[in-house]
Amino acid sequence: MIGHVSFDERGLVPAIVQDAATGSVLMLAYMDREAVEATLRTREVHFHSRSRGRLWKKGETSGNVLHLVDLRLDCDGDALLVEVHPAGPACHTGSATCFGPANEESLSRFLSELAGVLRQRRRDLPEGSFSAELFRGGAPAIAAKLVEEANEAAVALRGEGRERTLSELTDLLYVMLVLATHLDLRPDEIRASLEEKRRQVPARRGRPSAP
Q: Disulfide: which of 136, 172, 197, 209 matches 149 by Cβ 3.0-4.6 Å?
């Protein structure tokens, strides 16, 4: 992939950073060959700092790293689209994006940031983190927690009220995100699966029930 990048006379290529879950454009920065290689190797986005003249990992001081989902070239090979899960605000001002505060509190942005945090937990496996405990346990631990939370959500729905059901539903959603992280699922894969199911709905309605 790097061999097809058309770096300019300074050895740089513009990199447009996009939230993989929301589609929001987060920022524009520049990469050199070293930054592209570091990004692909670590799965955390690196840039070339033009002001400091060196490699720069986004979030190296703030902690708001960008977890790589996909890295793509445009048709001419002279620009990169960097799809990420941001672990926090992308802009140094504290805004979610460098292009203004639109949709600052959206659910999709929150879920994308949570996905970024879960990727960190899977990588670092910090002591005391319940997410890390699930990742250490692998598929058996995550599957058991899914069953537990789904059962608790069903029990709450049957008679424990709206607020309790909401609490159990978000617990279940959290474990589902852990599972998605464990499987390295991309947002476009999940969307494509949902779209396929939506297309199948009319056919299912017209299908006779199985005996």
A: 172
3-class secondary structure, 91: coil
Positions in the chain short of pLDDT 70 = 1, 3, 101-105, 201-211
3-state secondary structure of 148: helix
SS (HEC) of 67-82: EEEEEEECCCCCCEEE
Domain ranges of the chain: 2-86, 125-202
Q: Say which residue the tokens 């049957």 belong to.
A: 158
**What local confidence, expressed as pLDDT, does residue 210 receive?**
47
DSSP state of 29: E
What's the Cα-to-Cα distance from 156 to each of 142, 172, 174, 177, 198, rounded to whole Å? 21, 12, 17, 21, 28
CATH number of 2-86: 3.10.20.810
d(CA 24, CA 168): 29
110: left (phi over 0), alpha (psi -120 to 50) or beta: alpha
What is the rounded distance in angstroms from the CA atom of residue 13 to the CA atom of residue 36?
A: 10
Closest CA to 24 of 92, 121, 90: 90
**Taking CA 115 as the corner, what is the angle to CA 155 and CA 181, rounded to the nearest 5 degrees?**
80
**Yes or no: is domain 125-202 CATH 3.30.70.260?**
no
From the list 112, 133, 137, the residue with the least C-alpha distance to 124 is 133
Which pLDDT score, from 0 to 100, does residue 147 have? Answer: 97
Contacts 24+ apart (CB under 8 A), 49-58: 50/12, 58/29, 58/90
